[in-house]
């Protein structure tokens, strides 16, 4: 890869089935020492040596920021997995060693004298678990609104209830329960912040409700799990500095193809098109932008693209790498 920061070797010390589709992994430093400090909402990038090459996925840390002898992550088994979640679910065993990045936080809590309103959909519950540790410890006012398809499919409901009690509100779609996002935002006061993590439809509902109600964008925060990398046509990326040509398959991102090739290192933090770290200049060709970072003007200018999510409109894309 590609990460410019040194990786951390961790041992998988425990694997638990948190729901039919979600496993929780407990990781400890391979050298037995404490792991780097992190804040609620942080993620790490896990390297997965699959049969088709090295895959890197970002996972939120759901363990306590006050307990650095271990990290915990949760991974949902994705039907359309290109190998990452399948590797974690089917090939990883207790005792195995993994390489992970140091924690980064692109979804941090904002200091506020008001309430912190956390809205989770499905596996989007994970960043809130470390955030709630912080909120509980600081005595902050907060509420979790956690929506899921069914109680059987939902992870961590019992432990959230046991730990945070009346702070938690659950919405079981199988029972016809729905989280009234607009209603929640209507109750916000001037100092409250709202955070949402989950499927794009949930994030869009919060964004639309916030816009309709005139809530300042600085008080709305979101983290999207499934980046819009639904794939597309295969194309060729040319690394301008070496002339090397790399095929990007239909279900691959440019970043993944470059990582598998291994000839050049690229920085990346979120792998979701939101942080801007992986921005690369376009030398020739046109990008199909899929990120949430560049402005519409920057996208139209076709001077650069974010290679973790964006693709090519042309059969060849020459990049300044
Ligand atoms: S790694 Fe964050 S935008 Fe690409």
UniProtKB/TrEMBL annotation:
Cofactor info, note text: Binds 1 2Fe-2S cluster.
Requisite cofactors: [2Fe-2S] cluster; FMN
A GO term, aspect molecular function: metal ion binding
Gene3D superfamilies associated with the record: 3.10.20.30, Nucleotide-binding domain of ferredoxin-NADP reductase (FNR) module (3.40.50.80), Translation factors (2.40.30.10)
Residue ranges occupied by any 2Fe-2S ferredoxin-type domain in the UniProt entry: 235-321
Record: residues binding [2Fe-2S] cluster: 270, 275, 278, 308
Family recorded in the similarity comment: Belongs to the PDR/VanB family. CntB subfamily.
Record's function text: Converts carnitine to trimethylamine and malic semialdehyde.
Protein name: Carnitine monooxygenase reductase subunit
Organism: Aquitalea palustris
């Amino acid at each position: 890869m590609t990460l410019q920061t040194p990786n951390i070797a961790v041992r998988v010390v425990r694997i638990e089935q948190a729901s039919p589709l979600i496993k929780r992994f407990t990781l400890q430093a391979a050298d037995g020492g404490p792991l780097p400090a992190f804040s609620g909402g942080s993620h790490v990038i896990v390297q997965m040596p699959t049969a088709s090459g090295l895959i890197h996925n970002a996972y939120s840390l759901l363990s306590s920021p006050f307990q650095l002898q271990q990290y915990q992550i949760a991974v949902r088994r994705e039907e359309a997995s290109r190998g990452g979640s399948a590797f974690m679910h089917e090939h990883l065993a207790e005792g195995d060693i993994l390489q992970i990045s140091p924690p980064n936080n692109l979804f941090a809590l904002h200091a506020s004298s008001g309430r912190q309103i956390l809205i989770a959909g499905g596996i989007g519950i994970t960043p809130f678990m470390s955030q709630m540790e912080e909120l509980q410890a600081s005595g902050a006012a907060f509420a979790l609104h956690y929506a899921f398809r069914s109680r059987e499919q939902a992870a961590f409901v019992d432990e959230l209830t046991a730990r945070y009690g009346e702070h938690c509100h659950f919405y079981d779609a199988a029972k016809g329960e729905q989280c009234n996002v607009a209603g929640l935002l209507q109750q916000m006061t001037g100092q409250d912040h709202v955070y949402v993590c989950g499927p794009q439809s949930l994030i869009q509902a919060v964004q639309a409700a916030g816009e309709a109600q005139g809530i300042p964008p600085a008080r709305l925060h979101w983290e999207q799990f499934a980046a819009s990398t639904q794939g597309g046509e295969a194309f060729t990326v040319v690394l301008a500095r070496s002339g090397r040509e790399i095929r990007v398959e239909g279900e691959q991102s440019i970043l993944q193809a470059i990582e598998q090739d291994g000839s050049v290192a690229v920085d990346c933090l979120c792998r979701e098109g939101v942080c801007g770290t992986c921005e690369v200049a376009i030398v020739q060709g046109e990008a199909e932008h899929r990120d949430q970072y560049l402005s519409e003007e920057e996208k139209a200018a076709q001077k650069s693209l974010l290679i973790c999510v964006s693709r090519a409109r042309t059969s060849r894309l020459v990049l300044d790498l």
